[in-house]
Design goal:
CATH superfamily: Fumarylacetoacetase-like, C-terminal domain
Number of domains: 1
CATH class: Alpha Beta
Number of strands: 14
CATH architecture: Alpha-Beta Complex
Radius of gyration: 18 Å
Number of helices: 8
Strand content: 25-35%
Order of helices and strands: HHHEHEEEEHEHEEHEEHEEEE
Oligomer: single chain
Helix content: 25-40%
Structural class: alpha+beta
């Protein structure tokens, strides 16, 4: 397969707001995860050549219940960029979604690393020891394939469907808060509201039983994939949707409330 040609198809689909007719996996029998990561790497090289820089990773398929059906042995990921990450002001942000194909919104926990993660100890407390802060976030995903029909390799190739990441006010993580945070990350409930009405509910358990465990699994998975740079100090990590993704359109107003984490609510207004 011509990885550069596949990357160009995805780039043009994104720029022209034009979905591809079928996923790569439906037309290329041998299109696997390795090829998907190769396509994503080609897209990344193009973005870096244009002056952009990567700022971290987003996790996908952070739910072991689907791994067996999809023949996965770990989660997957895509890169975040300096021009796709938005830091909310006063826990409120505005984001243009009108040029996206079929965007959806996902409430997530976002971490910033202050140290590389020690792969010799991936217990939640040890992993959180490498974290500088955590925050509520909205991952905006956009699928270039019709009817959101795809396989994991298609997801990986297409930027991990990453379109934007909105980050709320960071909450520092330190040694004194880690023990209680380990417990609260597994139990906290979350409400996602649209125009003030509950659209979806979720919990930290929805992402590998805890966002901290998701961070640990991502660090392990990235380190074992040949040619992939390990997570590093300063990286942002978005740890997977806490609820079912919801369609988002211009004119929507969204808010997320996570109970028990000490994080302020995050709100987003979608525009054209």
């Amino acid at each position: 397969m011509d990885v550069k040609a596949l990357a160009l198809e995805l780039q043009q689909a994104r720029e022209q707001r034009r979905p591809l007719a079928v996923p790569f996996s439906a037309r290329e029998p041998d299109f696997d995860l390795a090829t998907g990561y190769a396509v994503e790497a080609e897209l990344r090289r193009g973005r870096l050549a244009s002056g952009r820089r990567t700022v971290g990773l987003k996790a996908g398929y952070a739910n072991k219940a689907v791994w067996r059906a999809l023949k996965l042995d770990t989660l997957v990921w895509g890169h975040l960029y300096d021009d796709t990450v938005v830091h909310a002001t006063g826990d409120a942000a505005t984001l243009a979604v009108g040029r996206m194909c079929t965007p959806k919104i996902e409430p997530e926990i976002v971490f910033k690393l202050r140290l590389p993660i020690d792969l010799g100890d991936l217990a939640p407390a040890a992993v959180l020891g490498a974290v500088e802060w955590l925050a509520l976030g909205f991952e905006i995903v956009d699928c270039p394939f019709p009817d959101w029909a795809f396989q994991p390799a298609d997801f990986v190739a297409a930027y991990g469907f990453h379109a934007a990441l909105v980050i709320g006010t960071p909450h520092p993580v330190d040694a004194a808060t880690i023990p209680s945070l380990v417990e609260r990350l597994t139990t906290f409930p979350l409400q996602l509201r649209k125009h003030g009405e509950i659209a979806a509910e979720g919990s930290g358990r929805n992402v590998l039983r805890s966002p901290a465990l998701c961070l640990a699994e991502l660090a392990r998975a990235v380190a074992t994939r040949p040619g992939e740079a390990p997570l590093a100090a300063g990286d942002l990590v978005s740890t997977g949707s806490l609820t079912e993704p919801q369609e988002v359109a211009p004119g929507d107003t969204w808010s997320a409330h996570a109970e028990g984490l000490g994080l302020p609510d995050l709100s987003l207004r979608a525009t054209a």
